[in-house]
Amino acid sequence: xxxxxxxxxxxxxxxxxxxxxxxxxxxxxxxxxxxxxxxxxxxxxxxxxxxxxxxxxxxxxxxxxxxxxxxxxxxxxxxxxxxxxxxxxxxxxxxxxxxxxxxxxxxxxxxxxxxxxxxxxxxxxxxxxxxxxxxxxxxxxxxxxxxxxxxxxxxxxxxxxxxxxxxxxxxxxxxxxxxxxxxxxxxxxx
Length: 190
Prior knowledge:
This protein is an alpha+beta fold. Helix content is 36%, strand content 25%. The chain contains 5 helices and 8 strands; from the N terminus they run ααβαββαβββββα. The protein has helices at 3-10, 26-36, 55-76, 99-115, 159-169; strands at residues 41-50, 79-84, 90-95, 122-130, 134-140, 145-149, 151-152, 156-157. The longest helix is centred in the middle third of the chain and has 22 residues, at 55-76. The N and C termini lie far apart (44 Å).
């Protein structure tokens, strides 16, 4: 470790982990198992979440995202909107009845933003599924893995369902092993 990197590390100025998209497409094949074996139907919604950013970066990112989406969604017919949640995180919300189109657009948006040096702002991609209640599969760009989130009323989670989903899907999805990194995403705008 060099002297500069040692001081940066000690002073908390280290660089953030880079966003990774290597395993993002795994959900496109895992969806079959979710539908047949788990009775989880993909909804027509998905989203990408970004950490809050300064206003000038936000405007640049927003313009990049909107330009990209206007072009890419013409082919697929995917609709989109940009929205800030109650915690000031920026979301790109996609709607499309074709799950493959959602996965493709999520990947394309994330890759483009990484290429445009917004990779450190990318937090996660989220796919909503419907069963007895909503279940979300969250892809953490920094950890390069998925985890389930089964929200209930009053900011409660169905931990037993989440653990069952983990055990049933870990052969098909790259599941985040450290359960402490299974962050709940309350207040998602979809």
